[in-house]
Design a protein that fits this description.
Length: about 230
């Protein structure tokens, strides 16, 4: 790992040009060790999603270095991040992003099959993951037949399908009520503890998340600092 860290951001600058330049991160540094469960706590619009996208290789910084599992993400070619994510990173989004025409089981199986895993093996593993997230009895339901909390749990199972080292969650409770929000954070805590997956969750739902993360940071003055 890069100097003992699973994730490392060094002097990262990131801006967007929407007709005029908007700085999001400025000379930002951030480090995560293997096995941590870290929360990025900040209001909407402060750059939480940007940070998640940079670490996932979905976006590139203006300058600076981003290292994940000894791979320098910011200097990868156009197609390399896709391969890297399939191997090392699972992502959970606010809006679930489940395929409406696929059942819960088929949604979880999809990344495994895209990686060439035989259908029978993918099915068995996906059923095990649905059991872990408490949805073994709803494997044949379509997203429209599931509650928001259940859809998010399917999305988490899908993100875990390829045994990622890192799970990135961007506002995973943003569309959930209080009960389901707590359930999602409890599930993430259990996965971090029992599966040894490193988790970075970006959320403005500080009230619920603070009881579950092992460490919290925020974005202040375009830098990443302790919360």
């Amino acid at each position: 790992m890069y100097q003992g860290y699973l994730i490392a951001l060094k002097n990262v600058f990131k801006s967007y040009d929407n007709g005029f330049k908007v700085e999001i991160l400025k000379d930002a540094n951030f480090y995560m060790k293997n096995g941590e469960f870290v929360g990025i706590f900040a209001p909407s619009g402060y750059g939480k999603s940007t940070l998640i996208n940079l670490i996932a290789g979905l976006d590139k910084p203006d300058s600076g270095e981003i290292w994940v599992n000894n791979h320098r993400i910011d200097s990868m070619s156009e197609k390399e991040p896709d391969v890297f994510r399939r191997k090392y990173v699972g992502i959970v989004f606010q809006f679930f992003n489940l395929f409406p025409t696929l059942t819960a089981l088929e949604n979880v199986m999809l990344p495994l099959q895209l990686n060439g895993v035989p259908k029978g093996v993918a099915r068995k593993k996906s059923l095990e993951l649905l059991k872990i997230v408490g949805l073994a009895d709803k494997y044949d339901r379509f997203p429209s037949q599931l509650s928001g909390g259940e859809q998010q749990r399917v999305a988490i199972a899908r993100a875990l399908a390829n045994d990622p080292l890192i799970l990135l969650a961007d506002e995973p409770t943003g569309n959930l009520d209080e009960k389901n929000a707590v359930m999602v954070f409890e599930l993430l805590k259990e996965l971090n503890r029992d599966s040894d997956v490193t988790i970075l969750v970006a959320t403005h739902d500080i009230e619920h998340a603070v009881d579950f993360v092992s460490r919290a940071v925020t974005i202040k003055g375009k830098k990443i600092v302790d919360f």
